[in-house]
Amino acid sequence: MTGLLLGQIVLTIILACIFLFRPSVITGAGWRIVAFIGLGVLPALCIVGGMSTHVHRSEQTSFCISCHVMVPFGRSLYIDDSKYIPAQHFQNHRVPADMACISCHADYSLYGPLFDKLRGLKRIYFQYVSTPPDPASIRIPGGFKNAQCLHCHLGARDFEKNPVHSALMDNLKSNQMSCLTSGCHDTAHDVADLNHEKLWSPSQ
Known about the structure:
It is a single chain. By secondary structure, the protein is mostly helical. Helices cover 55% and strands 0% of the residues. It has ten helices and no strands. Helix 1 runs antiparallel to helix 2 (29-58). It is elongated, with a radius of gyration of 24 Å.
């Protein structure tokens, strides 16, 4: 929480207390303006600021893997094997390490961020209200779309000049062939076999 937002919340509480316990002070025109700001404008700013802060926090890797069911996915980012695509992107900072989950799983369409947040709320519901699913059974609704890979890789020299990629480019762009097709990049998190994998430590 930022200092500015915290200050707004504290000021709102102070003004609300003044008007609650001393309502007679708002008889003057000046105090009516202060009351409007304190009971209308400041709370609205606090709501907007709070939502912005928490939306930003929800995009952090640490937030994503704070749910019990997501812990294995967080551990899988440290698998010491180049075949594991998420681990290689995370360990080599091909995506920002502190935003690794959303970098690869974000829906980059027009309303994608909204749908991402709604799916996230569903996960939070399972975590705190319902029964969390088995991590090994979790699948992305609608499957993993190539657009999520191409958002970063399209236009990259080593990606487009790769003869395999260039030969399949039309199929990749149209999503007729998945980037996760068997024989290409088919090893993702694989949390079911995580206990059998060697993990990399940043201190190594």
